[in-house]
């Protein structure tokens, strides 16, 4: 995690130097974006794998919910307006500010004490893929999320054509479109706050089925209700329900996967879950000329809804009482070997 943030800060620092020397080019931006995206993947995978070493198993949902809430607030609600302010302040400010923020993130990580290492043996990515494929619950999550992301990415790719401009279905301007796309972020923030309470009240199997089913159904709303307020309400619901499902699935993956495979299991899941998103955007671009925008929304929404069907087979007992995970040699009851971090207070990490 430290290395990933240093790489991201370093890439932005190189872009700052290029800007100062008037040596910027679109190809340099491509390299920086590619490198930052690669580092982000490494960081996010490690960040999910480290959570079980910081909190007790019964507090994973609370910790993940609060982490999602913090990430969504910064990434979706604070970040875009801040970016607009930075653009107005000048080109150099746009690249200097993120570099400084990533260095600040490095400084914050230095206060997390401990080595947080497990005996993972010789790293083999294929082990994570095999574990996910052979584990029915994790395989189900990966397939459902992969297909859902395929469909949702497709709807996002054509949404601007549906919403913006005098020739669009809704005929809204750019500012209204900006407000519309903040609806899922606001809903996600609410879902992150409520996720632990929902799980405690209703268990895990039922919220997963209802959350993915509701989120899938909302993708098709533009096809049947061409009204900006109806679509905003649907997207708000989509964000709220989907983040509840995310908190539950991430917490379960952290519980079901062995400590020495957790990083590889997480990266294998994300390979499928995020790898389908560009494919969904391409598919929507191919379908829209043939089916029209409303027809494409309907088809992708039905696809996402059909993808939720495997969740009907999940039993509450296999989710609430997962098989115990064998800790590495020398580990305590709650903390893997090598983690010497101080136990946090009542609110998780």
UniProtKB/TrEMBL annotation:
The keyword Secreted does not apply. Residues 319-349 are annotated as: Disordered. GO terms for cellular component: plasma membrane. Residues 321-330 have a biased composition (Pro residues). Residues 141-349 form the Major facilitator superfamily (MFS) profile domain. Coiled coil: none annotated. Residues 332-349 have a biased composition (Basic residues). One of its GO terms (molecular function) is transmembrane transporter activity. The chain crosses the membrane at residues 85-116, 137-164, 176-195, 207-225, 231-250, 271-291. It is found in: Cell membrane. Keywords: Cell membrane, Membrane, Transmembrane, Transmembrane helix, Transport. This is Major facilitator superfamily (MFS) profile domain-containing protein. InterPro entries: MFS_dom (IPR020846), MFS_trans_sf (IPR036259), TM_effector (IPR010290). It comes from Amycolatopsis bartoniae. PANTHER family: INTEGRAL MEMBRANE EFFLUX PROTEIN-RELATED (PTHR23513), MAJOR FACILITATOR SUPERFAMILY ASSOCIATED DOMAIN-CONTAINING PROTEIN (PTHR23513:SF6). Pfam families: MFS_3. Its main location: membrane. SUPFAM superfamilies: MFS general substrate transporter. It is a multi-pass membrane protein.
């Amino acid at each position: 995690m430290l290395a990933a943030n240093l790489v991201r800060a370093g890439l932005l620092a190189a872009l700052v130097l290029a800007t100062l020397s008037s040596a910027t080019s679109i190809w340099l931006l491509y390299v920086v974006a590619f490198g930052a995206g690669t580092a982000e993947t490494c960081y996010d995978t490690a960040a999910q794998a480290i959570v079980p070493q910081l909190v007790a198993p019964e507090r994973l949902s609370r910790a993940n919910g609060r982490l999602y809430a913090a990430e969504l607030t910064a990434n979706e609600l604070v970040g875009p307006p801040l970016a607009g302010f930075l653009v107005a302040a000048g080109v150099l400010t746009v690249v200097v500010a993120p570099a400084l923020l990533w260095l600040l993130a490095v400084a914050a990580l230095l206060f997390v004490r401990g080595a947080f290492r497990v005996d993972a043996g010789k790293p083999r990515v294929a082990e994570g893929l095999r574990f996910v494929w052979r584990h029915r619950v994790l395989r189900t999550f990966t397939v459902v999320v992969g297909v859902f992301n395929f469909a949702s990415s497709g709807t996002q790719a054509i949404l601007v054509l549906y919403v913006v401009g005098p020739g669009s279905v809704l005929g809204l301007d750019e500012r209204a479109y900006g407000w519309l796309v903040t609806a899922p972020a606001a809903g996600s923030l609410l879902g992150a706050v409520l996720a632990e309470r929902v799980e405690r009240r209703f268990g895990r199997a039922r919220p997963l089925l209802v959350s993915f089913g509701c989120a899938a159904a909302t993708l098709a709303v533009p096809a049947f209700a061409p009204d900006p307020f109806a679509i905003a309400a649907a997207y708000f619901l989509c964000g709220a329900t989907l983040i509840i499902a995310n908190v539950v699935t991430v917490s379960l993956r952290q519980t079901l996967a062995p400590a020495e495979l957790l990083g590889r299991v997480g990266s294998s899941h994300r390979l499928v879950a995020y790898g389908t998103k560009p494919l969904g955007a391409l598919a929507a671009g191919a379908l829209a000329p043939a089916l029209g925008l409303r027809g494409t929304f309907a088809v992708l929404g039905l696809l996402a809804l059909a993808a939720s069907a495997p969740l009907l087979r999940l039993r509450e007992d296999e989710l609430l009482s997962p098989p115990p995970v064998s800790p590495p040699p020398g580990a305590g009851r709650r903390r893997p070997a090598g983690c010497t971090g101080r136990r946090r207070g009542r609110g998780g990490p």
